[in-house]
Amino acid sequence: MIKISLTANGRKVTADIDPRTLLVDFLRTNLRLTGTHVGCDTSQCGACTVHLNGRSVKACAVLAASCDGAEVVTIEGLAKGDKLHPMQEAFREHHALQCGFCTPGMIMAAVDIVNRKGAGVDEKTIREELEGNICRCTGYHNIVRAVETGAAAMAGAKIAAE
Amino acid sequence: MTDQGIGASVKRKEDLRFITGKGQYVDDINRHGQTYAVFVRSPVAHATIKSIDTAAAMDAPGVVGVFTGADLAADKIGGLICGWMIHSKDGTPMKAGAHPALAVGKVRYVGDHVAVVIADTLDQAKDAAALVDVDYDVHDAVVDLGKSQAAGQPQIHDEAPNNTVYQWHLGDKDATDAAFAKAAHVTKLDIVNNRLIPNAMEPRAAIGDYDTGQEQFTLYTTSQNPHVARLVLSAFIGIAPEHKLRVIAPDVGGGFGSKIFIYAEETVCVWAAKKVGRPVKWTADRGEAFLADAHGRDHLTTAELALDAGGNVLALRAKTKANLGAYLSTFASSVPTYLYAPLLSGQYMIPAIYCEVDGVYTTTAPVDAYRGAGRPEATYVVERLIEVAARETGRDPAEFRRQNFIKSFPYQTPVIMAYDVGDYAACLDKALAMADYKGFGERKAASAKAGKLRGLGFSAYIEACGIAPSRAVGSLGAGVGLWESAEIRVNPVGTIEVLTGSHSHGQGHETTFAQVIASKLGVPIDQVSIVHGDTDKVQMGMGTYGSRSGAVGASAIVKAAEKIVIKGKRVAAACMEVPEDSVDFENGEFLGRGTNKKMTFGEVALQAYVAHKFDPELIEPGLKEGSFYDPKNFTFPSGVHIAEIEIDAETGKTRIDRWTAVDDFGILINPMIVEGQIHGGIAQGIGQALLEHTVYDENGQLVTGSYMDYAMPRADDLPSYNVAMSNTPCPSNPLGVKGCGEAGAIAAPAALMNAITNALGHEDITMPATPQAVWRAIQKMPRKMAAE
Ligand code: FES
Ligand code: FES
Q1: Which distant-in-sequence residues (6+ apart) come within 8 Å of B602 by Cβ?
Q2: CA proximity to B168, closest of B385, B318, B295, B305
Q3: Interface residue B511 vs chain A (CB under 8 A)
Q4: By the number of CB atoms within 10 A of the CB, which of A70, B234, B339, B611 ranks highest?
């Protein structure tokens, strides 16, 4: 067992864990943050995507032990209280989810895409960047629309905040 | 209320929990004191089990139980069932081998369930599972569908000689042969419908729980039809009587058919919960999902189309071998028979049709319904034949279709189905305009200049869904009725709970069913809750598959709502002191005709429960009504999809330049959701045609067992879709709706392969048209075309 401390969705947590524990299992089992999902065993599907120190990672490919001192944000930590993140709003607005299983990972990946590629990110780039997130339900059409809209809204929110 | 009722693209009520990570899928649920199950699976495709030694596993740390097929048998737990009896053409019933939840005597595919190990933690269960020592006497695998029935092949089940489950047929052989004999032209194709692995993103999972005090089992399971699961687990497998077994299917992360079936894992988890005296949880990893979820498709077909000299279709003939895998899954027998051959008339007047289907065992995972289930296979046969016949006879594929379209309804096909309504030419015209069919020649020339091969292909599909009239399916061998139930509970304040036997695993019923209530009862959708997925709450239901929840499930809600209005009118009449037959119900208000008296829906609900103002001898208190709705007919969605592609001749890579879909789904409850269903269906159809392929090697090892090897469609593989509707209301149900869930997956493969073969100028390519396959096909092109 080793001891780790990290910040999850703004909350300081400390735990004794088996050093082999994956971040996704730590989030789901220890912290009961079950919005982060497990869809595969080969780091291919992206259902487990979270933000680690501000960048999206696949939490099934990260050891929790390596996150000591880190800042982790999961889907549960994206909204500000009752105020949804613009990307969450955009997913609902554009019907970018059906069963919802891929959705937390999609939204976390989408926010990171916009952070890296900017508000004007185009369809081709969005599709390429979403390569690591599999959705079996939507055919991606509406996800792409949502990311476009979410990107613009994130830029708007940023301007409004400045 | 029209902004929320039928026809409005209301945003989904269920989305808030999913976009905030608050969904509750089975794996998100934990029961106090739960243990973890790991299945010991066969590493070989075909073997006799000489012995299973569980002693070392039993002694491993944390282990609370290790069980094998012998333990299930000792408890008189029956095998898994196939619920649809098919008779061969000689009249004999299908020949099915036993399907124990844990293997008895033999294993028959890689991934077959040999034993279960249950321990305090998942890691302990995994470690102990590795200690179960199984001694196998390995036999040859039977993997090649084309050869599996040949003499001398290893026998998979003693009950099924030559690995043949049935030799079934449909249609009039003599009439068909006679039509072929006088045909001016015959088009013949050998068709492979490639095997797919469904891959809902949520892996299957189960938690079994047993309450000793109540003698009550509870099963949490990733099911599309929890009541069917309870029925099968109770009545056939013998876990417990139905009143002692509760099945809960909470949020379910996609199904596409693969979560209809009652599998070994949930059977074992719920049974074992009583054995070990603690809850037992199992969650598949993706590798297990690849190995042991029921697969889809996998047909080999030889098909022929007969034309007269004027280009009229005279007859269609098909002979299909359908791979059923190593065991018959829950509905496996029906998929390549009654869900397939009755669709071989497509949208066309075909006077004579004859189809033969051999259902065949192989040492591979069971094959059962996957999105479309039989209808994609039929559409692929019909639409490839039609397209190629047009090419071979020098006809425009659009006009050739139009010439042969069924033009008046109802239309009785020679293969069971009676189409109720449609306007195929309207869909075609709209699709041609949207796709700019006229401009295709110019685009093709421009592509050729750039060294690219451009192609365009059609798929004018039909499908039969809204499954199904119970008496009709009963006469065809189904073991169940396929009605749906609904119960509307109006609370004293006028809010409503609707209990439905349908199950939503992505379809958005919490929204669309509430919209039906908004239209029928005038209650805003935020005052309506849809309750589903729990056999203790919803009395009975048949679940969601075969695009049935709108046509059947929502129709049941309409029927119950009509009863609510009737009862409400009686209560309102008493309260308003007007005659019962003078009360009208409009926009959520009960109106005394010819008076200025009126009551809101909520006021009437309250009075129904207060029960002060009517005679209880005449009117019972309360406001709650139920309905079991059995459909009159299938619904027949149809449409025209046009794929236009460009192939890079150097790499063989196909780029989808534009996708046009014009569908006829009758009345739409929520157009936004319908479009989403179409998008998702097309994506799965494109996946089948371009990417997805299931490969077993000659030893029966699954080669494509992970996302590294099985090519799932990803965002950058797919285009945006150009989707429109051309609707004719369905006369067979009270809402006028048709099913939309499977249409995209049914239509898409033929459109895409017709486009690719159009670009290639020959038909010598099978799905999936991977870059390698296309590149090889380019090498076989007539030299002139390739050079163009
Ligand atoms: S679970 Fe992490 S990528 Fe699939
Ligand atoms: S919404 Fe179901 S997998 Fe994406």
Answers
A1: B493, B494
A2: B318
A3: no
A4: B339
Q: Probe ligand 2: pick from A49, A95, A98, max atoms within 8 Å of CB?
A: A98
Establish whether residue A84 lines the binding site of ligand 1, counting it when its CB lies within 6 angstroms of any ligand atom.
no
Q: Which residues of B touch A88 (CB under 8 A)?
A: 19-20
- Provide the residue range defining the domain that includes B37: 31-141+203-253+259-292
CATH number of the domain bearing residue B614? 3.30.365.10
Nearest CA in chain B to A86: B19
Domain-embedded: residue B355: yes
**Under 8 Å CB-to-CB from B665, ≥6 apart: which residues?**
B637, B674, B725, B727, B737, B738, B739, B740, B743
Q: How confident is the model at residue B358 (pLDDT cuts 50, 70, 90)?
A: very high
Q: What percent of chain B has pLDDT over 70?
A: 99
> 10 Å Cβ neighbour count for A106?
30
Looking at B624-711, list the stretches that DSSP marks H as alpha helix, in order from N- to C-terminal side: 671-686
Q: What's the mean pLDDT in B433-461?
A: 98
- Which numbered ligand comes closest to the C-alpha of B707? 1
A39 touches chain B (CB under 8 A): yes
- Which pLDDT does position B784 carry in this prediction? 57
Using an 8 Å Cβ cutoff, are B348 and B406 in contact?
A: yes
Q: Which two tokens stand for residue B649?
A: 């001749």
A47-76 pLDDT, tens digit per residue, is 999 999 999 999 999 999 999 999 999 999
Residue B522 in any domain: the answer is: yes
Indicate if B185 and B171 belong to the same structural domain: yes
Cβ–Cβ gap A39/B202 under 8 Å: yes
Give the Å distance between the CA of B494 and the centre of ligand 2. 34
Q: Per-residue pLDDT tens for B298-338?
A: 999 999 999 999 999 999 999 999 999 999 999 999 999 99
| Chain A contact for B124 (CB, 8 A cutoff) | no
Fold classified for A86-161? DNA polymerase; domain 1 (1.10.150)
Residues 6+ apart with CB under 8 A from B394: none
Q: In terms of CA atoms, which chain B residue is nearest residue A145?
A: B720
Helix (H, G, I), strand (E, B) or coil at B200: coil
User: Tell me, what CATH number does B51's domain have?
Assistant: 3.90.1170.50
Per-residue model confidence (pLDDT) at position B786: 56
Residue B529 and residue B401 share a domain? no
Hey, which of B18, B25, B201, B222 would you mutate to test ligand 2's pocket, going by the most ligand atoms within 8 Å of its Cβ?
B201
In degrees rounded to 5, what are phi and psi of residue B666? 70, -145
pLDDT in tens, B189-235: 999 999 999 999 999 999 999 999 999 999 999 999 999 999 999 99
- How close B248 gets to chain A, by Cα (Å)? 17
**How many alpha carbons fall within 13 Å on the CB side of residue B620?**
7
Mean pLDDT over B118-130 rounds to 97
**Domain extent listing, chain A:** 2-77, 86-161
Q: Are residues B638 and B609 in the same domain?
A: no
Q: Is the pTM of this model over 0.90?
A: yes
B441 pLDDT tier (thresholds 50, 70, 90) = very high
Q: At what angle do helices B555-576 and B601-610 cross, to 10 degrees?
A: 70
| One domain, residues B673 and B572 | no
Q: What is the DSSP letter of A61?
A: G
Quick one: B667 and B558 in the same domain?
A: no
Domains: count for chain B: 4
Residue B240 has pLDDT above 60, yes or no: yes
Mean pLDDT calculated for residue range B462-471? 91
Interface of B with A in 239-268 (CB under 8 A): 251-254, 256
pLDDT at B396 (0 to 100): 98
Q: How many CB pairs under 8 A join A and B?
A: 174
Residue B718 shares a structural domain with residue B642:
yes
B532 and B613 assigned to the same domain? yes
* Mean pLDDT calculated for residue range B56-78: 98
Q: Are residues B505 and B586 in the same domain?
A: yes
Provide the pLDDT confidence category of residue A158 given band limits of 50, 70 and 90: confident
- Kindly report the CATH class assigned to A2-77: alpha beta
Nearest Cβ partner of B287 from A41, A95, A107? A41
Question: Given the CA of residue A58, which atom of ligand 1 is nearest to it?
Answer: 2
Q: Which whole number is the average pLDDT over B144-169? A: 97
